[in-house]
Amino acid sequence: MKIMVRAFARFREVVGDVTALDLPVGSGLPAVLAALASRSDESRDLLFDEQGMIREHIIFMVNRKRVSRSAMDSIILAEGDEVAIYPPVAGG
Amino acid sequence: MLTDREIHRYSRQITFIGEEGQERLKAAHVVLAGAGGLGCPAATYLAVAGVGRLTIIDSDRVEMTNLNRQILHWEQDIGRNKTVSAKEKLGAMNPDLFIEDICEVITGQNASALIGEAALIIDALDNFPARYALNQAALEHGIPVIHGAVSGYDGHITTIIPGETACLQCIFPDPPGGSEFPIIGTTAGIIGLMQAHEAIKFLTGRGTLLKNRLLIWDGRDSSVTFLNLERDPVCRACGECAQGPGSERGDL
Question: Could you give all domains of chain A from N- to C-terminal order, each with its CATH number?
Fold first, then answer.
C-alpha cells in the first residue's frame, strides 16, 4: 500500500517535501519511521536517539490528526494515508 | 480617550479599526518575553501601532552575533542589557508608549509575578524551559499567549487561550533539543511580525486568531501549512491531572 509522508522543517531538507512509501498492508507508524530511517544516517538521527528510541519532541500526524506518543504503536495505516512529521523549532 | 495628536498619528489605521480599536490598543498592557530575534520586530510594530504599555523581559546583554536579526539592537549597544537597548529605541519611536524593562531570567518561581495582570503575553523566548514556565503562569492567570519559535528558514506560531485552546505543553509535551540555533534574520522577522499581527487582532477584536492552529512557515519555498491542534486531557500543565506550579518543568 502507498503511504504519503509530508516532512516539515529540518526533516524536509533530509527526506524531501512529500515522499511516497510502499509498505505492506497492515503497516503502522513504526514501519514508516523505519523506512525513512533506512534512507540515510541523517534521517535516522533526526528520528531516533542514540538508544534507538523515537525522539520525544517530534510531532507526528496521520491524516492531519495529531498522534499521541501512547498511540504510536497501535495505529494501523491504510492505503493513501498521509503521515506528517514536524520536528518543532525552538529558537527566538 | 484618544488625544487629538493620537487621532492624527494613528489616522491611517483608525479608518480601519476605528477609534474604539485604537483605544483598546492604548489601554492594553502587553508582556514581551524576550527581546531577541522575535521580540524586536514584534515590539517594534506593537509600539508604532499604539499599544499603551509594554513590559519587556530579557536577561541577556547584546552581543555582536545578535545583530543579523535583533533589529532594535545596534553596534553601539553591544554589552548593554537588551531590555535597556530595546526600551530606548521603542521610546524614541513612540514617546507615548509606557515601557517597563525587566532584566531577569523567566523561571517557575518568578513567572507569575513578572506577567502580573497583563492583557496578553508574547512568547518570543529562545528556550523551552522558560517557555514552559511562562505557559504555566499564563494558565494560572488566564492570560492569552502568542507563541512563536524559529530556526533557520523555519518558524511556527499559535495563539493560546487558557481553558479554551491547547496550551504550549499540550502542543509540545517534550522540549526540542539544542540551545544555539542557526537563524536567518528574515525568518525571525516574519514570525515576530506575525506575533505582533496576532496581538493586534486579539486586542482590537478584529480578525480570526490562530486558536488551536499551528501555522508552520517554511522559508525555503515561502509556504505556509496549518496543523490543527487540540487540548491534551492528560497535559502536565493544563490537563485534568496537572500538578500546577512548581511541578515538573514549571519548577525551573
Answer: 2-86 (3.10.20.30)
Q: What is the dihedral of CA B158, B162, B166, B170, to 10 degrees?
A: 110
Whole-angstrom distance, CA of residue B189 vs CA of residue A15: 27
Q: What is the mean pLDDT of each run of 10 residues along chain B (252 residues)?
A: 96 98 98 98 98 98 98 98 98 98 97 95 96 97 98 97 96 82 95 98 97 96 92 91 52 38
Contact B216 A8 (CB under 8 A): yes
| Cell numbers given for B29 | 498592557
Residues A62 and A70: their CA atoms lie apart, in Å, by 14
Q: Domains in chain B and their CATH numbers?
A: 4-250 (3.40.50.720)
A&B contacts, CB < 8 Å: 83
| ipTM of this complex prediction, to 2 decimal places | 0.86
Judged by CB atoms closer than 8 Å, whether chains meet at A64 and B228 is answered as yes
Cell 518561581 sits on residue: B109
Q: Which residue of B has its CA nearest to A65?
A: B228
Mutation target among B154, B195, B215 for the A interface, most CBs of A within 10 A? B154
pTM attached to this predicted model: 0.92
In 3-state terms, what secondary structure has residue B152?
strand
Q: Do A12 and B218 touch (CB under 8 A)?
A: yes
Question: How far apart (Å, rounded) are the C-alpha atoms in residues B36 and B181?
Answer: 13
Q: Which of residues 4-43 of B touch A (CB under 8 A)?
A: 34, 36-39
